[in-house]
Amino acid sequence: TFSGVPRFDWGGFAAIGIAIPLLLNGLVALRTSEGGYAGWLMLGGAAMLAVFVARELLAREPLLRLELYRRRAMAFGAVVMAAVGFAQIAVTYLLPVYLQHALGYSASQAGLVMLPAMLALGFMLPLGGRVADRVPSRYLICGGLLTFALSTALVGAPWTAASIVSITIVTMLGRAGMGILMPALNLALFK
Questions:
Q1: Do residues 147 and 176 lie in contact, with contact meaning Cβ atoms separated by under 8 Å?
Q2: Do 77 and 188 form a contact (C-beta atoms < 8 A)?
Q3: What are the tens digits of pLDDT across the range 11-50?
Q4: Exposed/middle/buried for residue 138 (C-beta within 10 Å: 0-12, 13-18, 19+)
Q5: What gap in Å lies between CA 114 and CA 94, rounded to an integer?
Q6: How far is residue 88's CA from residue 104's CA, in Å, rounded to a whole number?
Q7: CA 159 to chain centre
Q8: Is 5 helix (H, G, I), strand (E, B) or coil?
Q9: pTM to 2 decimals?
Q10: Burial degree of 128 (CB within 10 A; 0-12, 13-18, 19+)
């Protein structure tokens, strides 16, 4: 270290920096006729991921301290955060596709549905942080997850699909739930 600053783990950075593109390109190649090529990419990505884990376990100053995941709260929180992140990205991608291809909206109309939802998320994140300081995290996490799941389910309901306004309101509700969930989850992870 130089004056108390930890050394950057270039080996771990290189291993994960190679693993992620290999794994992602392997997943993309699965959709094409290049099945054997996809297998090699996935195998290479898995090998580099194993190199990353081994490196992080042995490094004096790792990029990611894997021993943190021995704590039950940290491991559970990481799984929930990954699931929430996956769901949020999936909904953010799939909702405009659904609006355009299934309901016939234009790209601009689909974007206008997403804008108020993102504003609701931006408004609720600081509010969720304040509430998380006063209310037990488990209630906010469960409430936020339920709100997000409910709004995602309601987007496909016939009465919701009948109007762009109702889809917008339901989508805003889901993002508001995320705004309550995320600060509470972060707080629970690092207590």
A1: yes
A2: yes
A3: 999 999 999 999 999 888 887 766 678 889 999 999 999 9
A4: exposed
A5: 11
A6: 23
A7: 28
A8: strand
A9: 0.70
A10: buried
